[in-house]
Design brief:
Chain lengths: ~110, ~110
């Protein structure tokens, strides 16, 4: 069964600090991996999308890495801001006709002043 | 583009009543997805359409749930009859291609009493 596991479940950091969120998956065959940010009460917003051949992708202060061999991804947030407080969801899609996606449970990040 | 539009934003109904959720995808997007999000189960894909045709409805929980897409700019998700366990946030998302970034609407928060 395809699974996406995220860690930690929740994280509290001080404003200005860096942090790294983890995503491990068993989805096969692999098509792509996406990181979404979901603010409370809103829909998820895409941060990055990576295919098999990409091992890093940045979007401002967000940098995602992918190791397709170990089936691991990380999302690094640099110089955190209060507005980074949100849930971060890792989503992995299959490389099949159905192209199904498996969602992680998310990491809840709280940035404190 | 205004993004994905969903209505209503909030819905409170009594058990046994029919509920209809509406979605307008981003113009030009060929794929439309319906998701349900709860604290217990996270984000779950219910059904998705390609060019108005339902492709995968394996996530639809029961026969009480039905979805239609009569044209490229409108979709509905209907629950009849509704039950308290259907209480959740229902998101609609659209994308250009199946495995590309999905753009989510603001969601409909449904409470069934």
């Amino acid at each position: 069964k395809n699974q996406v596991e995220q860690s930690p479940q929740s994280l509290i950091i001080l404003e200005g600090k860096n942090c790294t969120l983890q995503c491990n998956y068993t989805v096969s065959p692999f098509s792509n991996l996406r990181w979404y940010k979901q603010d409370t009460g809103r829909g998820p917003v895409s941060l990055t999308i990576m295919t098999f051949s990409e091992n890093t992708k940045s979007n401002g202060r967000y940098t995602a890495t992918l190791d397709a061999d170990t089936k691991q991804s990380s999302l690094h947030i640099t110089a955190s801001q209060l507005s980074d407080s949100a849930s971060y969801i890792c989503v992995v899609s299959e490389d099949t006709n159905a192209g199904k996606s498996t969602f992680g449970d998310g990491t809840t990040l709280t940035v404190k002043p | 583009d205004a993004g994905v539009i969903q209505s209503p934003r909030h819905e409170v109904t009594e058990m046994g009543q029919e509920v209809t959720l509406r979605c307008k995808p981003i113009s030009g997007h060929d794929y439309l997805f319906w998701y349900r999000q709860t604290m217990m189960r996270g984000l779950e894909l219910l059904i998705y359409f390609n060019n108005n045709v339902p492709i995968d409805d394996s996530g639809m929980p029961e026969d009480r749930f039905s979805a239609k897409m009569p044209n490229a700019s409108f979709s509905t998700l209907k629950i009849q009859p509704s039950e308290p366990r259907d209480s959740a946030v229902y998101f609609c998302a659209s994308s250009l291609l199946l495995r590309e970034t999905q753009y989510f609407g603001p969601g409909t928060r449904l409470l069934v009493l």
